[in-house]
Amino acid sequence: MLFITLFFILLDLFQAATSLSIPIPNPTRARSPRLQPARVVNAPAIPTSTLVSDFKKNNVSSQWAPGHPLQWGSEEKLIEFPVPLGFVGWVATAVTEDEKFLIMIASQVMKVYDLDKEAFISNSSFNFPADEVSLVLLTAPGGGYDLIMSAENYTTRIDKTIQVRLDQNGKRTNYTREFEGKFASFEDRPFSKDGRKMLTQSQSTYKKGVAYVYNLDDPTFNLTLSGHEDWIMSETFSPDGKMISTASWDGTAKLWDASTGQLLHTLGPFGGQNWLTRFSPDGKNVLVSIGPGAKPVIAIWDLNKNLTNDPQISIGPFPNWCRSAEWTSDSSLLATGDYGHILIYDMSSHQILQNWEMEDRWNWEISNMAWLEGKKQITYRITGGLELYDFETNLKYRWGPGDMDRYNGGSGPTFLLKKKGWIGGVEADVKVRFWKYTP
Ligand SMILES: *[C@@H]1O[C@H](CO)[C@@H](O)[C@H](O)[C@H]1NC(C)=O
Ligand SMILES: *[C@@H]1O[C@H](CO)[C@@H](O)[C@H](O)[C@H]1NC(C)=O
Ligand SMILES: *[C@@H]1O[C@H](CO)[C@@H](O)[C@H](O)[C@H]1NC(C)=O
Ligand SMILES: *[C@@H]1O[C@H](CO)[C@@H](O)[C@H](O)[C@H]1NC(C)=O
Ligand SMILES: *[C@@H]1O[C@H](CO)[C@@H](O)[C@H](O)[C@H]1NC(C)=O
Ligand SMILES: *[C@@H]1O[C@H](CO)[C@@H](O)[C@H](O)[C@H]1NC(C)=O
């Protein structure tokens, strides 16, 4: 079983984040998707909860769950990184799949928080002077955990990935391995389903667009995927582990044989930057988020058909890039998140079932979308907070800064701790908050 319990910490703060005007799809190159500290956005004084279109059930708009929206200060647990962060406005986080440990990394310090004891149990440091760290925790063979850190130093342009094994007690062992490249930038899914094959890519100037395939259990195995002419933004394994899809700023997406590294097919170029790629969990479809530059759409190909540059399904166009898209585990529904806007698309009827749209849409990007309990709920991050919609009860939830607070960026993945009945993660002010919630 795989467990990517964590992800990156950061979304790029797009120039629109500070702008009052409607962003126009940028025909030139967007800047490097690098981590920035969370910041307060100079946006219009419209409550973030003001919607043009809400989630609906039987044509009745969703209602707030009792007490919601909830604001900072009403959380069940607040966990701060207990060292001065200095200029580093980020904390990378991961939770073990058994919900025992929360790992926090900032600057070059790692702290392990015991979720049962509700206390930090260890400090350690890395010689890893990076501006950005992504963190993933896997269950290690024979017990314990594999902590995989992926990082880039923007000055030296060195990117690398480090594996460190923790024992069952969350204690760091001396088992460590280094890999070339880092995870791709946007909500990457860099592991095969069994969690043992890993994808990295290089954003260094010298190896631009090169991807690597590793086997965590076999140090002699690696593949180099060469062919992209610009940075890879997203890379992922097919559910059966046989194929790899990569989406790049060179305008193409490529499908590769995961055991030989052979290029199977190139989709595009589509004339814009590509941001995201995903396989549907049933392995039947692959999606690529295209644009801007080209018309921003989510393009979906049926892998049983001959692949041409015409996708079978095209969702959009969106006014700007769409960097969040998640299928339900049964592959029946696809959620897309762009700027202040979520669509739920039905793969069999080809209908849009839900259209959620903020009034002040243009300032806020959706991130970290995740389906819970199959397709009972969906969560996402927006305006510095965490939101959730329950399709059965038609209730919506929000945990975040105040409704008029203008935070953007700085948020990370969401953790649902079922044993504790907590939901949360790192927020725009670089603190981890958990709230009481049972799906
Ligand atoms: C849904 O509600 C809207 C506004 O209340 C109404 O105009 C529309 O006709 C309704 N649609 C259906 C399918 O009932
Ligand atoms: C971790 O380091 C901090 C600051 O140096 C210290 O206060 C704390 O006691 C340490 N915690 C553990 C569990 O070692
Ligand atoms: C990146 O590397 C340079 C050179 O080693 C170092 O001076 C700098 O502090 C590093 N950046 C970070 C954020 O640690
Ligand atoms: C790593 O730890 C193991 C078990 O504690 C020990 O046998 C081994 O010598 C250590 N290796 C290094 C390089 O320190
Ligand atoms: C791949 O493996 C070979 C042989 O073990 C090694 O020399 C090379 O550095 C590895 N390449 C990468 C990108 O890790
Ligand atoms: C794919 O193209 C090949 C060659 O043109 C053709 O023989 C085959 O029937 C096509 N397959 C499908 C599923 O359309």
Give the distance, in angstroms, between the N- and C-terminal Cα atoms.
22 Å
Nearest-integer average pLDDT: 87
Rg value: 20 Å
Portion in helices? under 10%
The quaternary organization reads as single chain
How many strand units? Answer: 38
Poorly predicted runs are 1-37
Question: How many helices?
Answer: 0
Strand content: 35-45%
SS-based structural class? mainly beta
Largest sheet composition: 6 strands, mixed
Shape: globular
Bound molecules: 2-acetamido-2-deoxy-beta-D-glucopyranose
Model description:
By secondary structure, the chain is mostly beta strands. The protein contains no helices and 38 strands. Strands 5, 6, 31, 32, 33 and 34 form a six-stranded mixed sheet that branches. Strands 2-30-29-28-27 form a five-stranded antiparallel sheet, with no helix packed on it. A four-stranded antiparallel sheet has the order 7-38-37-36, with no helix packed on it. It is globular. The chain binds 2-acetamido-2-deoxy-beta-D-glucopyranose (6 copies). One 2-acetamido-2-deoxy-beta-D-glucopyranose (NAG) binds at residues 129-131, 153, 155-156.
